[in-house]
Specification:
The structure holds 2 protein chains of 2 kinds.
Chain A lengths: L1 H11 L15 H4 L3 H15 L16 H17 L1
Helix pairs in contact in A: 1-3
Chain B lengths: L2 H31 L4 H9 L18 H12 L3 H20 L4 H13 L3 E4 L17 E3 L2 E8 L10 E7 L9 E7 L3 E7 L13 E9 L8 H42 L8 H29 L2 H4 L2 H29 L1 H4 L8 H7 L8 H11 L12
Parallel strand pairs in B: 1-4
Antiparallel strand pairs in B: 2-3, 3-7, 4-5, 6-7
Classes of the chains: A mainly alpha, B alpha+beta.
The complex binds flavin-adenine dinucleotide (FAD).
Chain lengths: 83, 393
């Protein structure tokens, strides 16, 4: 999952730095993730993992770092399994 | 609402009414000469309205956004420029109240603001960036305990008359354009070199000249939170709601003028329907729609404030954007209707039914953070965000 997120971030994040240089907990907004790019990233993730972000998770916190994205995804996948 | 709360509430709107009387007296002059509404702003200070939002414990009155919006509406009916100065000041104060209550410097500053009724201006707009306020070119330079900033600030309303300017910039020399901070600079800590004059169609009294801003201040005056959070959690809602309240005030006064015109006609020819009556009814219906838009926005904000995650959610941003888009467009339709009702008496200056100033002032609403820019942001969010279609949701 971490790898896929990193690939998508490299492709869609429009960041001025290589994604390989980023720690999992690096603040993506501070690095330069724009709101437009964050939505593109969400769409890419929805497509890659075949899921939809519920409105309650569409906030800055969910996409603040690679670790946060992983956590958000795990939360969605778990609730999908439970359903 | 308790009786005591009601009493202070009444006195707040009474105080606003007294300021409005002063603002109304000078509104035409302020507009004609594109000069700062100093009589109205002095009256705000005398009535101690500049510090009302500051928490009680720092010497203010803990005014809610609902109370602030009501003041904006009252002032907006008298002089839109004065009302907008009040609104923009309170938007800056909201950043202090929401994000400065853990920083000793900002807490002390709130005490002083309330005690001395300091007027706060804003410099987010930048040459080369325009209204895209979540991006900066300029960067603050923190050198030990001191910070320095130079900004090509192309629009600072009442910049030359303010006691304080809050300025956005990149957080440091190597920061990305979206990695921003906001810093409080007090008069004496900055110089302003005027670069552009504010000779505009409307909102002339806001004196929103452009300046080359150069500031140096203790680094503790930088807000301890990223500007991205301040923008999302307090500025977005406060701007769109308080601006909308001012615009509602302009439109409400236009409808009152149109109604006075129709009533005068009806009294002259009893038994027949004056020609403008139907259009007045249409304008009144749109005015109610505008009011409902603002009230529902205030409720969304109140609900979101109780839950920090919701405050930074897309659903919340979309809702606030929609308040701004709808208010800024509807006022033009309403005032135009009122103008048609009043005919040449509305088109002419200096009649009791004059609407030229209202119409000109109202035209700023769509540009004050361009509606196209806002629509662009919303349309991006709607690629993933799903609108709540319930009535009370
Ligand atoms: C009465 C008034 C008072 C103000 N006071 C202040 C103040 O005190 N401090 C301050 O900092 N600023 C202030 N502003 C400026 C305001 O906040 C905006 O920055 C400004 O109105 C935008 O100016 P602009 O149209 O030149 O720039 P831009 O936002 O760059 O827009 C220029 C044009 O490009 C189009 N455009 C640009 N980007 C996009 C996009 N992404 N999508 C679609 N269209 C786009 C817009 O439609 C617009 O026509 C004030 C403005 C007004 C009207």
């Amino acid at each position: 999952m971490n790898e896929t997120i990193r690939e998508l971030l490299a492709k869609l994040g429009g960041l001025p730095v290589p994604v390989t240089d980023l720690a999992d907990d690096a603040d993506l907004y501070a690095v330069g993730l724009s709101s437009f790019a964050s939505v593109q990233l969400m769409l890419g993730i929805e497509e890659a993992f075949d899921l939809e972000f519920p409105d309650s998770l569409l906030n800055r916190k969910s996409f603040a770092s690679i670790a946060a994205i992983e956590q958000t995804l795990t939360q969605i996948l778990n609730s999908k399994e439970a359903a | 609402m308790s009786l005591a709360a009601l009493a202070t509430d009444m006195s707040m709107s009474l105080r606003a009414r007294r300021v409005a009387a002063v603002a109304a007296e000078f509104a035409n002059q302020v507009d004609r000469d594109a000069r700062f509404p100093e009589e109205a702003v002095n009256a705000m200070k005398v009535e101690r309205l500049l510090g009302v939002q500051i928490p009680l414990r720092f010497g203010g009155e803990s005014a809610s956004i609902e109370e602030l919006a009501e003041i904006c509406v009252v002032l907006g009916q008298a002089c839109a420029a004065s009302a907008m100065v009040f609104a923009m000041h309170q938007i800056k104060v909201s950043s202090l109240v929401e994000h400065g209550c853990e920083s000793p410097w900002h807490m002390d500053f709130m005490r002083e603001l309330a005690a001395r009724q300091l007027l706060v201006a804003s410099a987010t707009t930048e040459g080369g960036i325009g209204g895209n306020m979540r991006n900066s070119i300029c960067a603050i330079d923190v050198d030990g305990n001191t910070c320095r900033l130079i900004k090509d600030a192309t629009v600072i309303s009442y910049g030359a008359h303010a006691d304080v300017i809050m300025v956005t910039s990149r957080a440091h020399e190597n920061a990305a354009s979206t990695d921003q901070v906001m810093t409080v600079f007090r008069r004496g800590q900055y110089s302003l070199e005027k670069t552009v004059s504010w000779d505009t169609l409307g909102m002339r009294g806001t004196c929103s000249d452009g300046f080359l801003f150069k500031g140096e201040a203790p680094a503790v005056q930088i807000f301890p939170k990223p500007f991205a959070e301040i923008a999302a959690q307090s500025m977005l809602a406060n701007s769109h709601l308080l601006w909308s309240a001012v615009w509602y005030g302009i439109a409400a006064d236009a409808v009152l003028r149109a109604q006075a015109f129709v009533r005068a006609a009806a009294r002259k020819a009893p038994g027949s329907q004056p020609p403008g009556a139907l259009r007045l009814a249409e304008a009144a219906s749109l005015l109610q729609l505008l009011k409902a838009n603002i009230l529902s926005g205030l409720k969304v904000y109140a609900d979101a404030k109780a839950d920090p995650d919701q405050l930074s959610s897309m659903a919340f941003s979309v809702a606030m954007n929609n308040v701004k888009l709808a208010s800024s467009e509807t006022i033009l339709t309403i005032i135009n209707q009122a103008m048609i009702v009043c005919g040449i008496m509305g088109y002419k200056n200096g009649t009791p039914y004059s609407l030229g100033r209202h119409l000109r002032d109202a035209h700023s609403a769509q540009l004050m953070i361009s509606n196209d820019r806002i629509l662009g942001n919303t349309s991006t969010m709607l690629l993933v965000q799903k609108p709540d279609t319930s009535l009370f949701g």
